[in-house]
Amino acid sequence: MAIWVTQSRNVASSLKIKIGFLASFRRSYISSSFNSSCLTTRTTTSTAENFGNPCPFLRNSGIHFILRRFESLSSAKPVEEVKNQALHFLGGNTAFTSELTFISEFTEKVHCYRVLDENGHPTTSNKFPQVTEDMAVKMYRDMVTLQIMDTVFYEAQRQGRISFYATSTGEEAITIASAAALAIDDVIVPQYREPGVLIWRGFTLQDFANQCYGNKVDNGKGRQMPVHYGSNKYNYFTVASTIASQLPHAVGAAYSLRMDKKNACAVTFFGDGGSSEGDCHASLNFAAVLDAPVLFICRNNGWAISTPASEQFRSDGIAVKGQAYGIRSIRVDGNDALAVYNAVRMAREMAIGEQRPILIEAVTYRVGHHSTSDDSTRYRPVDEIEHWRKMQSPLIRFRKWIQRNGWWSEQDDTELQNKVKEEMLRAIQVAEKTEKPPLAELFTDVYDHPPKNLQEQETLLREYVKKHPQDCPSDVPL
Amino acid sequence: MAVVFQGIGAATAISSTNASVSTRMPFSSRGSPSGGKASFLIVRSDGRLSSGSNSRCRRADQLITNAVATKAESSTASTSSKPGHELLLFEALREGLEEEMDRDPRVCVMGEDVGHYGGSYKVTKGLAEKYGDLRVLDTPIAENSFTGMAIGAAMTGLRPIVEGMNMGFLLLAFNQISNNCGMLHYTSGGQFKIPVVIRGPGGVGRQLGAEHSQRLESYFQSIPGIQMVACSTPYNAKGLMKAAIRSENPVVLFEHVLLYNLKERIPDEEYVLNLEEAEMVRPGEHVTILTYSRMRYHVMQAAKTLVNKGYDPEVIDIRSLKPFDLYTIGNSVKKTHRVLIVEECMRTGGIGASLTAAINENFLDYLDAPIVCLSSQDVPTPYAGTLEEWTVVQPAQIVTAVEQLCG
Fold first, then answer.
1. Which of B43, B31, B35 shows the shortest CA–CA distance to B18?
2. To which H or E segment does residue B148 belong?
3. CA-based, 20 to 30 A from A174: which of A135, A354, A472, B137?
4. Predicted structure pTM score
5. Helix (H, G, I), strand (E, B) or coil at A402
6. At B294, phi and psi to the nearest 5?
7. Catalytic-residue membership of A441
8. Cross-chain Cβ contact A253/B153 below 8 Å
């Protein structure tokens, strides 16, 4: 599954065979969207030759069935006759058919939008939306920062300095580029592999280190595992470990933005694994029904711990599911920062301007292990990992592009890497030495004011600590 | 005994012949006439004193004045001899909700069929017309998701009220309630707060079947970070609803399916009750009976019998299920030295079990006898009416228990 992207050229040929196969069964199903601003590239299948013009009265009802009424290939029957044969239901007119056929489980694979190829060359000679030099350089710098931060923290965990870590290696472009396309007012509701957004918005390496060490300067007051960042200053909801439980939160945040009529949207991230959760299904449904301005960005990185995407769903990825809920969707190359940037920017405009949800599937590969508790070489080949790390790296691709534009040099690269490494090591040292949160913070924030039972429990605990200081950690102030 | 509890108006102290006094029409407006035999639940708590009482003579006094009270359609206090206005419990909830929605534009409601349908128990009737269907939001059927949605909206500044059509359906929302609602204020280091109210009817109804007769307070009571309250009268329903909405913590408000049509006269002035306070229903000397929600009425029915037999029970509606009001409870235990807990939860792991442990831990020295806890059996609620009746604690059992406890 992981290397399906390179097979896209083969898809078309295999499709032709399938379509011929289908046509010979005289399938009467056609899917098309009449919405002219729709970005999806799905068009009618080759059974179109059996149809005249689609019935005009069905124009606004989105996806629907078109009746293939007679064996004759002549043009469509007059509109009035068709009307009489339609069922007035479900907000439109559903035409009847006397053909007993089922919608196929397979249709043409959704095309994947990309701007730069693996070597950083634009794939199209058409003019594509440009980013400014400043923005492009910042994007690259932040991607490098993210990658180095991940490496250093991962090593720190291996050395026992922090207890846990999860990298975003291979997926840097998704978070950085989408953050670049958003505004600070947009509410981010993350899963757990999106620290890139925080980097873009201004979270410092020291802030990250403080959270991973759970010291007293941490925003979260040491209460969450490493990687579970949260910042109301940067509009980034605190990460909860539960998969996909954040998707309904995003819908709620969008609902709130809608009530306040703010010029902002909610943006939520989830993975291919998360798309199986019930919450994902219901959130997409809710968002569509409620016209909530949410961007659902799925990082389809091919793996949910050890479960490959082929065992996660039978559908053609995530993008195709949007249509089932009445949501506009797109599939983008998640390792192409420019493609992600463009897609998110346009999606944001649609979400806010038209008050609707958008689904973006960013296809990528999880180069790192699921987390420090995982060794992915046990379930996937090492050369596959290395291929994606080297050949498909989002950083290398983007760097080639900005270098070609004259915005970046090898020297800049070396300088940046050294600088970030140094800063990281310093941040870790400082975070390590900082005190842990005091004992009282064990009991605060459970409620707005600690109730009596918690006050009692705190008293009991303090008594215990006083009596047995040798049994208690020495770096937790009382 | 079942006569008292038609679920359409309880007048526990009145003799059973005209028990079904309150209007049968669930959607009646305030102060609708129901004949001269109208009687009210006068049980009220103003925090200190209880004006409600079960003794016959006091009841008769009140009856006399009430018979003179107007039975006109007007619901204002001006023409009647008593202050305040009369309404049913679901209307009281609505009144509280409406007042809070007027007061704070961030308050919104979401749930299944709460909008134009008005809610399956009509608590939100008319609100969608008044506030628009964005503020009173109909959601698709996915409890985990609309609870999650409320959490996300709360983290972004709104004050949502989630209505579960039946509390049992909120089992589907357990992940959101436990892992997110209760936790996110803590794990975010106080950066995000979740002022949601999660409410809905629960408890054993009239042949609603096992799945619709869940007592969720048992399951939720362990979740850190949430508060739980149970209302039982129109007066405390409105007050607790307002308090829950104003609270910065997530609050679960338990209503009971059979109590929605209780009628009571409540004050016209605005009032908000304390979420953590218990209600003294009937002061007494011999035994402390702790109860909440529907069981309060069974207890008061039993109290009538007990008084006739010469006992003087003190009845406390604990109202606050998490945390317990151990101050009020403790004072009572110190006075009576005997405790009987009457609950609708199942024997294992219910509110009664926790309350027993809490009282034993804190007030063991004041007890003259072991705490007795009457609860439902550990069975799913059967559908057959007679079986269902026997799975819920009945007044006769309460009387027997008190007799045994007090000797």
1. B35
2. helix B143-155
3. A354
4. 0.78
5. helix
6. -65, -30
7. no
8. yes
